[in-house]
Amino acid sequence: MVFSCGNSEEKISENPADLKPLKGDYKLLKMDGKDISSEGFILNFNGKKQRLSGKTGCNNFVATYKIQDSVIQFNTPLGTKMYCEGEMEYEDTFGEILPKIRNVKISDKDLIFLSQENEQLLNLEKKQERE
After folding, report:
1. Which domains does the chain have, with CATH numbers?
2. CB 67 within 8 A of CB 20
3. In whole numbers, what is the pLDDT of the chain averaged over residues?
């Protein structure tokens, strides 16, 4: 499926199998429809190992996922348990949302993770690599 906006074309995939070659850092912009772009969530994907790790503002986490029958399923993330004043508001919500993910929309620069009912749960933007 290809969507076109003006002169540029952006390829969009809705196949979770396309996560396999995924690698790199993504910034979490929205969670369950709420703008949390200022909270500092960074997610790192390693598609070959089907592993997600990152920083949730205060703590670090790691989670694995599997792709089967065109469905993606994340395990509950494991993380550090540091306390950071004013930086932890969304960490528990993130841990609750991740296992609810079943579908994904993938473009060159964005990832949108969806529930089984296709509700947007996480919206991410690929971070630019430093040169």
Report:
1. 2-125 (2.40.128.270)
2. yes
3. 84
